[in-house]
What we know:
- The protein has 9 helices and 4 strands, in the order αβαβαββαααααα.
- It is mainly alpha-helical.
- A hairpin with a 4-residue loop joins β3 (148-151) and β4 (156-159).
- It is globular.
- The two termini are 27 Å apart.
Amino acid sequence: MTLPGTPATPTSVEEDQTDAKARREKGEFVRGVSKFRNVLGEDTDFPAEPGRYHLFVALNCPWCHRVTLARNVLGLSDSLTMDVVFPSRTTEDDTTGPNLWEFNPGRIATFTGAALPECTPETATGQKFRLVKQIYEAEGSNETSVPILYDKKTKRIVANESAEIIRMLNAQAEPLGSSLPNAKRPDLYPSGADQAPLRAEIETLNDQIYVNINNGAYKAGFSSSQDVYAEAFANYFETLNALEDRLAADNRLFLTGETFTEADLRLFPTLYRHDPVYYLRMKLNGAKILDYPHLWRWLCRIYKRPGVAASNSLVHCRQGYFGRSWNNVVPLGPTRPMPYPEAYAHPLLARV
Length: 352
């Protein structure tokens, strides 16, 4: 089960860029490649130290959601500071240009008619930048994406690839100042020779989930080719079916068994968005997660873990995704059987 243009052996980190321009011209959504790939704790310029590093994120972005999830479940919310952009990007009439992430805590959300309390000014560079673009420009880069892992001491970007950031945070959680003792902190990607089979299982799941679910949702929602959309749609729901069967086979708690791992963390942001956002916005209306009882209970199980609910906001998701639609109107539902995210506290809502 592969998507058009993806490599024969899919990658769980980034999309193959072969013929990217031609594929885009044919209507396919092709995600770009992040360019800052330093390794915190291994590169001598970026030692793991508590209080030194910072995150720039958008709460509507599922790639950022991976990182905020890791920050919270690993006990790093106090030692890894964070700024949050407004979920809708700059508009056509902005003097600096459209479609840019901005730090603007006073901006009014069309969805709520008020400012969003999670949004912040930019606090890490010392420059009080308004745009994420300016953080990159300070390093001579033309990138504009989030998340960014930033070094407040050297005023440099460490990394901007979410898959690599979450693995760094896991590997360096203790020296970064985790508030959780080792015995209580999840190990999302265990090291050691004895854990090699588990790591291989995680990598296989990551490949399947990234290509068909995480990036597959964008293939379906943002491609302008009916054929590309149809294949992405099919792959997305085939993969949901396979994951449902995986959980149901032995009634396991998590994707690899009894332990919460990186594979669960990477799947969660997409499924968290599916019913209230992606079902409509990404044209993924084949089914809701509520229609998959084991996946729904898995989703609720993770949502109740400490720090998970606080790692994101469906208000930001709705504003960010529907605020980019042609009329900027944000749908108010679903409200049955219960509004979201309140529904995630009720695992028995799933249809059996």
